[in-house]
Amino acid sequence: MRPLALCATLTILTSVVAVAQRWDVGPLRSPTPIPRDGLPPERAAFFTWLVVNSGKVPNNAYQRVQERLYTYISQLAKDHAGAFPPASDTAAFNLFRAAAQIGVPGADRVARALYAYPDRLPVPTPIPGFDIAFRPPLFALTSDDSTWGVCFPYYFMAAPGGRQTPANGVSTELVVLSTLVAPDRSPAGSSQATIFIAAAPVADSLKHVTTWLKQFGVSPVTSPPESAAGSWFASPAAEPMRRLATIRRLPQRVLVIFYIGQPGTFETNRPHFFNLLATLRDGPCAA
To answer: Residue 158: which H helix or E strand, with range?
Structure first.
């Protein structure tokens, strides 16, 4: 998109009005295949392997271990139709405790909510650049200057990147959220679609938006998806990794929000992308 056209797009963006809503049950009805990741395929064998390798998980296996744990979290969420597990569910507690020990952000807070004696557990790890609160079944993630926030369910895997300054020189808050594991058409057989959020001061809107739209290779779409408001962008239809993006303007921040996934997972989890957009606001999110 040419800079003048993009500037016009940014000028006409309206402020976000967040509304409370329920999370779509469609993605919670999909199968949860165990990925072909080279780790022990059976659940019991995997956890035995994890205990034996406690504190010494090879660097080349670390991400695969996190994603396998997240696969089991996805299955748990689907078994409960998205509801938060009861405190008596020791299997759920052990699962989130294992995820916390391997470094999955937010898992420590879920484990505390499932345990009768949370004060006996380690204090949750702070996340630079953000405040994160957990009110079952939702996380509330807010920038530490309270300029924007979103809500997402306990079964999303969050990776807040904090406040960074990329090559464009704009101070930017970055967040990556992984949605549920679902079947896809990749060699692994399953994956999570990803929501990527980049937020920057309104004064830097043009440079910020131009940078990220170019980085992800998306172009304007003439028909907004599901008649959604705002400006929308998408990757070329022929590309294997699908990308959808939108721009949201708040009083102090402009956000470029991407939804990215493999064919199959992209379509299955797409309703949860729109659910998350509905929670966005200038401050703590609207649950």
So the answer is: strand 157-164
